[in-house]
Design a protein that fits this description.
alpha/beta, TIM Barrel, 8-stranded parallel beta barrel, 18 strands, about 15% strand, EC 3.2.1.86, GH
């Protein structure tokens, strides 16, 4: 008999929060850590782009160097996560804490020990780590030596790194993600951020400027990451059969602006290229037909070695994770008003409101996206980034009344539940920046996402003290009720 009764979210649903080492860990020169790509990116604002400096400049502010100093505050922070009731915590390992230049043959024991301590603290509170292996922090040594992922030689460096951490943490970590938002390399934004690639090695670059950075080099670098990811998946399963390895996609939900077939086809084309190209390779183990056409029509030649197709086939991920913040529209009309977004902007949707940073707020788009992904792959899904970047005001009594954040998250959780009712296998939810951290795109602290406020400003001033926002207590109840009490 068909059971069509809605059961709610699974009882073992993984509620938690998400961070990235380069945006909150700090301690950039402690414990033998080397420089990563994020460590050479200056601060910026919504209107002033971050810069990449091939050498560190004296007197210049680099947000990742201290970030919010989780390196020295990890016990305090994990205790706060436990107070909220986290079942899981998405974090990343800083590659340069383990291999300072990226190409060493032996790991840095002090760096490994730091994560031993972090995982022990999480275990103390029964919090399951969800570990991103590479989250926008390619070792800068690999950028200088090989121009990052533009070179195939970086694959072996990455696999050596994976082998080290898989073996070291095989009894304390179950869930792994190979690359954060791997699809960012389909766009100019990702050249340095995701690929560690400098087009002009000697000069400064505005990291988010729409520059002509050669699709050839980006898509070749992306292929190298696909091979690295597939090799990591296979290796993980050999080391521990209980390991679950996932992909992570920055899902850029795009609607056609009108029912004009040209707009509909453009939206589909962007969905394919920006979202599904990467996940088709990582989930299905092969390049899709539309990718081959795109390469052909844009004179992109992916250089493959003899066994590459077999490697991709043997290294398919176990589950699919993604970030979702907003949606955009696409249109062939160049005169329409445009808006910004996470990695990719688009045409403004007249039916939606936007955040202070111009990101359009679309909870129902999350339900559409969950269905769109699940209908294609039928493997477990996790929403591992979702949240509202906003300016938070500390009242005279120290309280932070971020009801706008509660409204945003509540509406998205409601749509997640609708997607589960649609039949989507959703296994977890980790809102982005569960504690305030440095914004990747702008380098700001002013753009806050957390349930926990960190006393620090855009210029690096502040005592780093932590305090609970109104949303902290709200999310605690959400987790306690497994999403029933919103």
């Amino acid at each position: 008999m068909l059971n069509n009764k809605f059961q709610g979210l699974p009882k073992d649903f993984l509620w938690g929060g998400a961070t990235a080492a380069n945006q909150f860990e700090g301690g950039y020169r402690e414990g033998g850590k080397g420089l990563s790509t994020s460590d050479v990116m200056t601060g910026g604002t919504h209107t002033t782009p971050r810069r990449i400096t091939p050498e560190l400049e004296e007197g210049t502010y680099y947000p990742s160097h201290e970030a919010i100093d989780f390196y020295h505050h990890y016990k305090e922070d994990i205790k706060l996560f436990a107070e909220m009731g986290f079942k899981t915590f998405r974090m990343s390992i800083n590659w340069t804490r383990i291999f300072p230049n990226g190409d060493e043959l032996e790991p840095n024991e002090e760096g490994l020990k730091f994560y031993d301590d972090v995982f022990a603290e999480l275990k103390k509170y029964n919090i399951e780590p969800l570990v991103t292996i590479s989250h926008y922090e390619t070792p800068f040594g690999l950028t200088k030596k090989y121009n990052g992922w533009a070179s195939r030689e970086v694959i072996d460096c990455y696999v050596r790194y994976c082998n080290t951490i898989f073996n070291r943490y095989k009894d304390v970590v179950k869930y792994w993600l190979t690359f954060n938002e791997i699809n960012c390399l389909t766009m100019p934004f990702g050249t340095f951020m995701g690929g560690g690639i400098l087009l002009d090695k000697g000069g400064e670059l505005e990291f988010n400027k729409e520059i002509d950075d050669s699709r050839q080099i980006r898509f070749q670098a992306l292929h190298h990451q696909f091979i690295a990811s597939a090799k990591a998946v296979k290796l993980a399963h050999q080391i521990n059969t209980d390991f679950k390895v996932g992909c992570m996609i920055a899902y850029m939900t795009t609607y056609p602006y009108t029912c004009n077939p040209e707009d509909v086809l453009l939206a589909q084309e962007r969905d394919n290229l920006n979202n599904f190209l990467c996940s088709d390779v990582q989930v299905r183990g092969a390049y899709p037909g539309f990718a081959k056409r795109f390469f052909r029509e844009n004179n992109i030649e992916i250089k493959m070695e003899e066994n590459d197709e077999q490697i991709l086939k043997e290294g398919c991920v176990d589950f699919y994770t993604f970030s979702y913040y907003m949606s955009n529209c696409s249109s062939t009309d160049p005169e329409l008003e445009r808006t910004s977004g996470n990695i990719l902007g688009g045409v403004k949707n007249p039916y939606l409101k936007a955040s202070d940073w111009g990101w359009q707020i679309d909870p129902k788009g999350l339900r559409w996206t969950l269905n769109n992904i699940y209908n294609r792959y039928q493997i477990p899904l996790m929403v591992v980034e979702n949240g509202l970047g906003a300016v938070d005001k500390v009242e005279e009594d120290g309280s932070i009344n971020d009801g706008y954040r509660i409204d945003y998250l509540k509406a998205h959780i409601e749509e997640m539940k609708e997607a589960v009712n649609d039949g989507v296998e959703l296994i977890g939810y980790t809102p982005w920046g569960c504690i305030d951290l440095v914004s990747a795109s702008t380098g700001e602290m002013k753009k806050r996402y957390g349930f926990i406020y960190v006393n620090k400003d855009n210029d690096g001033n502040g005592d780093l003290s932590r305090s609970r926002k109104k949303s902290f207590y709200w999310y605690k109840k959400v987790i306690e009720s497994n999403g029933e009490e919103l």
